Structure formats: structure tokens, C-alpha cells
Amino acid sequence: MNDQPSKTIPILLTFLSYGAVALLIVLPVVLILHEALRQGLHAALETLKDPEARSAIRLTVYVTVLVTVINTTGGIAAAWTLTKYDFRGSRFLVSLIELPISVSPVIAGLIWLLLFGRQGWWGTWLGHHGIHIAFAVPGIVLATLFVTFPYVTRTLMPYMEQQGRAAEEAAFLLGAGFWRTLIRVTLPDAGWALLSGILLTTARAMGEFGAVAVISGHIPGVTETMPLHIETLYNGYQSVAAFAMATLLVLFAMTTVLIRMFLERSFRKQHL
């Protein structure tokens, strides 16, 4: 009896995989590009010169860079703490770090609104002191920080656990400080994981909608990020402008994916 699997099964699975990718990923991107260029490239580019569109782009880039830097720093610290030290409550801390993945972004936005909105717990005090968080850029940053926090930590932890603690302990015994040990000993071996986490954080921050929609107030030209501005344009029947902005957002996302693929290939070549 022949136990070898039929050659048709791998071919069928490959065909189904490519079909699913084409239907769920490639086709929507093609349709977005088609709608954006329906009136020509010049018309699509002109919509991106609108002051509100430019404001949305600037705000998205600003929030993405700021959130990525903060969450990279916090993610490295969290991963180091959880993998290099034994302490009571570590599993609970991991559960808290993973909480943003399981909680709806809309709920996250509501939490910040209940805390910092005008009718929130601290809203009145903040208003008296001229501090604006809800319906302002700080609220958008907080909401995006919340939903993107787990990525760097969760990508770094498996690599740091595989490393063990011997190398760091040897470095400390030889007189190396914390930062020198982290940069020279720990992170080089986990470099790919760190870069992967950073790119995941970047992509998630650029495309966040739910939490930001709740806490931002949807103020055009002030608190609208690119995803929010796309909704505003589409609801206003400005389809070409909406799809042009969506195309730009897709290009940003594809750029992060291509960078990730390039870095992964370079990392594998270095470790062959």
C-alpha cells in the first residue's frame, strides 16, 4: 500500500492558498487603486493636497513615530523584565500586556474618554488647568499606545527566553552596565524579533481606527488621522479623495511589509 500522499493534495492546497490571498488581499487593493484613479492620477493627487488631507497625513505620521518609539522602549523593558527575572505575578503581568489584543479598540477608546472626557473622572480637573487630552492629539496618542503595546514585547519574549541568562550574568560580572549589556549582548541575537515587533507596531499604529475614532472627536483638520479622514470623505460622497487617501495608507502599509521582508532575508543570510 502506498503511504505517499497524493501529488494533487499539495497542488490543491497551493491553489487554494493563492486563491484566498488573491480574493481577500490582492483584489481589495486593486479595487481601491482602481477607484482612486477613476478620474485620473492628477485628480487623485490633487485631493491629497487638500489642507485637511495634509493635516491627516501629518498627524498619522507624527502619532505613528511617537507611539513606535515609546512602545519599543517599553516593550524592550517589559520583555527583559519578564524573561530575565523571576518574580511573583509575572504571568498576571503577561496577561495585562496581552489585554489590548483581546479587548475591542472601541472599548479602549471609551475607557480613555471616561477618564479624560469633559464628563470623565479627571475631565473637570484637566479642563480647569487647560489640559486637553480627549478630543485632542494626546488622547489619540494614548489610544494608539494602548492598542499597539503588546507587539514588541510578544515578539521579543520567545527570543529572550531562548537566550537564557548566562550571557547577561557573565557581562555583569565583567563589569558591564545594564545598557551596555542590553545593546551588546541581548539585542543583537534578538535583532530580527525586535525589528519585526517595531514594524508590526508601526503598521498597527498607522491603521488604527476604533479607539482613535472614539477619543479624537473626529475634528477635521485637527484630530483626524488618515483612517478617520477616509471615513469622513467617503461619508461625504468624495469617493475619489477617499480612495486616494486609502491608497496612500495601503502604500505605507506595504512599505512596512517590504521592509520586513528585506530585513528578514538579510537576517537569514547572516545566520546561514
From TrEMBL:
NCBIfam families: 3a0106s02 (TIGR00969). GO terms for molecular function: ABC-type sulfate transporter activity. InterPro entries: MetI-like, MetI-like_sf, Sulph_transpt2. The chain crosses the membrane at residues 12-33, 59-80, 92-117, 129-152, 192-219, 239-263. Keywords: Membrane, Sulfate transport, Transmembrane, Transmembrane helix, Transport. The complex is composed of two ATP-binding proteins (CysA), two transmembrane proteins (CysT and CysW) and a solute-binding protein (CysP). Its main location: membrane. This is Sulfate ABC transporter permease. Part of the ABC transporter complex CysAWTP (TC 3.A.1.6.1) involved in sulfate/thiosulfate import. Probably responsible for the translocation of the substrate across the membrane. Residues 57-260 form the ABC transmembrane type-1 domain. Gene3D superfamilies: MetI-like. It comes from Gluconobacter oxydans NBRC 3293. The lineage of its organism: Bacteria, Pseudomonadati, Pseudomonadota, Alphaproteobacteria, Acetobacterales. It is found in: Cell membrane.
